[in-house]
Amino acid sequence: MEADDGDFPTEPSEHSHSQRGSVASSVTRAQDLMVYLANDSAVHLTLEGLGCLSAKELGRSVREPLNIPNSAVDVFAFWFCSPLLELQLKPKHQPYKLCRQWQDLLYRFTDAPTEDISQDEPTLLFKRNVFYPKSKELQIDDGGVLKLLYHEAKMNILEGRYPCDPEHWMTLGALSCAIELGTGQDDQAVKTAIREKKLSSFLPAHVALGGGFLSTLRGRGGRHSEMEQNLIKEYRSVCSSSDGSSLEPTALLHQYLRTCHTLPYYGCAFFMGEIDKPAQGILHRGGRKVVQVGISLEGVYVMDIKEKHVLLGLKFNELSWDHSYPETEGDSHILWLEFDGEEAGVPVNKLLKIFSKQAELMNGLIEFCVELCSSGESETSLPGTDGEVTPSQAHSGQVQNSEKTPERRRGKLRRQSSVVCSRVHSLNTISYVVDDGKEVKRLKPKRAASFFTRQAQPPAYSAVQVTESLEQG
């Protein structure tokens, strides 16, 4: 859903002023606080002065009962999550005060009805920091920290937030069996445990639960039995293919995370948005498709929520972007993604419009990630629980674009059936070229520069100016 790198409103709005009490009363008395983890467990704290505690200060109180070492201080961060919105807190944010501004944030970053907003309450979660590099995870040897990362990764796999192919989710399911059931179980014991915990505890819900006409014809019982057998077979393979040392719990956790790392969107913050559907039928009716946008230190990924596959995946050196505000009432915030494409054998620039009130958050997060990567700080200085990196206030939407061959630009080829493979052909994009570097025209044979004016050295960022004819096209 959403992660934040921007500042939040500090004053209550007219929508929720009447529902706010005094924060001062929380300063002098002890209060109970529940901090939830990805495995649905919680840390119960009783704290004085909760109303004035920052996320950085609260982090120390949470890490102690979880026995998280100082070396892992940047691995996790606090998040406010609800069905309507998810936000990662900065170290300077005060969770208690921010919670009391929740309705303001919902009005600002969601299109939820007023009734839903008035009833929504956030949960305070302690989970992976979106700015923590994947490369550092496998250097962690603390079992408790690895378990927390494992439970969060598993939750994202089971909920379909991390779309993956059958070979991935079957391997991950078998590793979960080995981690949670042990590696010395016989087939019958594993089958019994799987049935007690349910198949959906090891495989993604849309896979384990199935459904649909074909599933009904085939018989859900037969399908479940087949998946059980495949899972047990993969479990046996995981156990037999490992030497004695790799069967240790820490090694199994590393193996699970390493497998998740092959998914490009591992560790992303997620946002909700909509994109235009391609015109279909005689009347050329389109409409919009709801999508999930994942943003990490590595790139941007647009995913089909219903089909559980990637529509577009771009590394930062493969895209340019901008955020445009509504010009008139009824217009939407738009995140523009520009990337190289091809149409009728002609190199073109493609623009994808993502309509979302969270475009402002997405823009800020992309900008921050690009600055971290370009400055080399992503490996050494992290805005985690106890440290903060403050991005420049100047826009830096420009991304370095080194000279690259088509093979390098596209990366490793994947079969089209893979859920990780981009499906650019299914997107309703704007295709254009820039004639003489000035005028935007469609499908001209000669391609010059993008109107983002990519350069080898990061210049000052100039916002996208979309002409009326281009917008309507």
How would you sum up this structure, described in words?
With 473 residues, this protein is of the alpha+beta class. The protein has helices at residues 55-66, 95-99, 102-109, 114-119, 134-137, 143-158, 166-181, 187-197, 205-208, 213-218, 220-240, 249-261, 359-375, 406-410, 468-472, and strands at residues 30-36, 42-48, 76-81, 86-88, 123-128, 269-276, 288-295, 299-304, 309-315, 319-324, 334-343, 346-355, 430-435, 439-441. Strands 10-11-12-13-14 form a 5-stranded antiparallel β-sheet, with helices on one face. It has a 4-stranded antiparallel β-sheet with strand order 6-7-8-9, covered by helices on one side. Strand 8 and strand 9 form a beta hairpin. The relative contact order is 0.11.
In short:
The protein is of the alpha+beta class and 473 residues long. 32% of the residues lie in helices and 20% in strands.
Characteristics of this structure?
single chain, 473 residues, alpha+beta, five-stranded antiparallel sheet, four-stranded antiparallel sheet, 32% helix, 20% strand, disordered N terminus, disordered C terminus
